Amino acid sequence: MNDIVLNCGYVPLVDCAPLVIAKDLGFAAEEGLALNLVAQPSWSALRDMLAFGSLDAAHMLSPMPVAMSIGLGGLPARIDTLMVLSVNGTVFGVSNAVAAELGDLPFGDAQALLAALAARQSGPLRIGVPFHYSMHRLLLSYWTSTVEHLDVEEVTVPPSRMADAVADGFVDAFWVGEPWGSVAVQQNVGQLMMTGSDVWKFAPEKVLAVRHDWAGFNEDAARRLMRAVFRASAWLDARKNRTLAVEILARSEHLSMSPDLIDPAVSGQITPRLNHAPEPVAHFLQFHNHAASFPWRSQAAWIAQQLGADPAGIQKAKACFRSDLYRQNLSGIGADLPGASEKVEGGLQVETAVASTGGHMILAQDAFFDGRTFDFPSGKR
Q1: CA-CA 20 to 30 A from 99: which of 54, 166, 203, 339?
Q2: Strand pairing category for 204-211 and 125-129
Q3: Which residues, including other chains, have CB under 8 Å from residue 338's CB and lie 6 or more apart?
Q4: Would you list the domain boundaries of the chain?
Q5: Helix axes 219-236, 17-24, angle to 10 degrees
Q6: Model confidence at 381, in pLDDT bands (50, 70, 90)?
Q7: Where this protein primarily resides, as one coarse class (predicted)?
Q8: Do domains 4-88+203-259+284-340 and 90-201 have the same CATH topology?
Q9: Considering the domain 90-201 in this protein, what is its CATH number?
Q10: Helices (H) and strands (E) in the chain, counts
Q11: Domain 4-88+203-259+284-340 part of CATH 1.20.1250.20
Q12: Model pTM?
């Protein structure tokens, strides 16, 4: 029997790792898949390729399927999230000039950084983000909305161009996925001030997305793809595999860059500025542990709410996070599945055991920096 050929788009970032590992280490082949990874230059290009059928699946920013499914962004389409590919993995940084204005701030203190930025007297702060419908932009908006007197101008910059945008003075600050924050540090054009997890401890960053009709007509291919990616994600979160993971991602056909720029995200050792000791960040980038790959429908609801969706739009968003397919397609390979598909977002201050099919599930902290919680089934925020 011939393998099923799937074309899967991605943007070269560390968090495309589950797809790269599924292909390179044979998890896809073992599921009878020939996985063709197709690099894309931007998120808009990847979006269009998936929507118009040139790709079967895609490594996507988590808000993109939600935005497209509720009719935002100029290209409405029913897009499903089969599973989460990565949690966290982003950094917020500033230019060296802005860093000098802010003074000596502790790395990772979202409240202190926000207060310092609001106290600047240098006019609007131009902040680069990779795409409007991104977790970077939603976290930025959520974070800055809690303080007055901070004038923010959002600028869209492709991840690979972020360091250049800082060097050229096009942006004053940036929120980007690794390794592109570390690139800005290595080029000595910017300093990292915090990570995305300092605003939301367990934010879904990238997802495995497909067209809704494709999922319906290709149930077997979807199941094989999800199983291959699930196994790759579990492999990635095993500490013993980190060195090999970095080596594979660094190859010319994937990220094509020095392993030294990739290692910080995989190891969780983030260097804030040149010649500074690395800062250890717990759960900096998660692929599998703590139910990282589960598509929580409450996370989709939070995303939709941040996008300004009405109650009907929030219900559409929840429907596009396919926890039903996750349960259906992964139950047969030993996946420990949570007892519910929704939860109170931001409610976990510590690691917490929850009901699951295997009885061994522990969820990580998922608190927001301001202590708020979001309970969409009951309508409380």
Answers
A1: 203
A2: unpaired
A3: 291, 294, 354, 355, 356, 361
A4: 4-88+203-259+284-340, 90-201
A5: 100
A6: very low
A7: membrane
A8: yes
A9: 3.40.190.10
A10: 16, 15
A11: no
A12: 0.95
